[in-house]
Predict the 3D structure of the following.
Amino acid sequence: MLREIRKRVVSVLVCFLTVNLLLSTAIAPAASANTVGAAPQPISVAAESAILMDAETGQILYEKNADLLLPPASMVKMMTEYLVLEAIKQNRITWDSQVTISKNSAATGGSGIRLAEGHRYTVKDLFRHMSINSSNPASVALAEYVGGTEENFVAMMNAKGREFGLSDGFVFVNPTGLPDDRGDSLFTARDAAILAQRLLKDHPEILEFSSMPRATERESDPNSQPMDNWNRMLEGWKDFDNYFSSWAYEGLDGLKTGHTDAAGWSFTGTAERNGFRLISVVMKTNSERERFDETRKLLDYGFNNFEKQVVLIAKSAVEQLKEVDISKGKETKVAIVAETGVEMLVPKGTTADQFVITAEPVPEDQRVAPIEAGQLMGTATITYAGANADLYEPVTINLVAANEVEKAGWFQLLLRAIGKFFSDLFGAVKNIF
């Protein structure tokens, strides 16, 4: 009888556990495609070359043949835009400056409304032609106006490219991106992203132009000839009842398309969502639609899988080095803090323990009173050690004095030296025994 009871108890327990397991499996939520802090699922981009960059830090989130030199077509105009905006910022020209269309610029073919030789346009109107309608005639007219001649302007473009640290082998042959008797301009997807980043950082007003889906030939004349933006992904297109409204991408407000037979269909895009901005580049896709589809894939990858995390807060103490020793001061130590904050774009769910922070003080001879608040006292290096760590470069910031420390008087220094002498002597004697 006892044995029979035991069998029944065991049988009931087995049934209970089995049902419980089945129920828990049935109601458990499906595993997330990206577990906490895990590497995002890889994507395949149908372009000869591609890259995805965090616009603020330059951190690379994805790349494919990113250092392959290719003809960029009208993406060259990002450098033309940069130099025109720089000339305005330096007060060498103004938005209202009048530009007379030369025979050379009037004869330039390709994209853009034809500009008649001898007609006059403001710099702003020509810039709108270039940045909205990718106008080649307007690009040449602006280059001649800023550089004196188109040749001088091209030299300026190449000099600025070297200043930006573009890749070995890059070259600008004209301000438009059209092939000419000197060949094709050449740069890489990484170069395009670097150029876009500098354009956005140094001249953010570019977005006022690049974000416009449609404009008129002359800003002052709303009835003048209309111009459409070749960037079919602009968020602004959603407000238009046309074919391209379905291509609009939330947060996308730039930057530059490009197309020639040699370059294929290329696009440098930028969009802002979730508190951060991304720059995407695709080079040599097979169609207009494909360049935008692949850009959408890149941007979705970035916005869906990454988040901005604060690693260090500006003016806060760094746990690894909260204070440093100083000499000849009224105090013998000074508290130090991070001069700037550090934010990183990391896989969603990344935890604090995936950031490795090391810190070290400046040499002793640089830690001598008087110390001023904000004076350099050390450095901290933040290394990301989570998923896709190979894509992250260590970030180094300055550690500075949190407050000033006055130089001690001679009597205080004498007493301190005497105290140290006897302390060292006592330690030496103690060690004998």
About this structure: The chain has a mean pLDDT of 88. The two ends are 80 Å apart (CA to CA). Residues 314 and 341 are 4 Å apart (CA to CA).
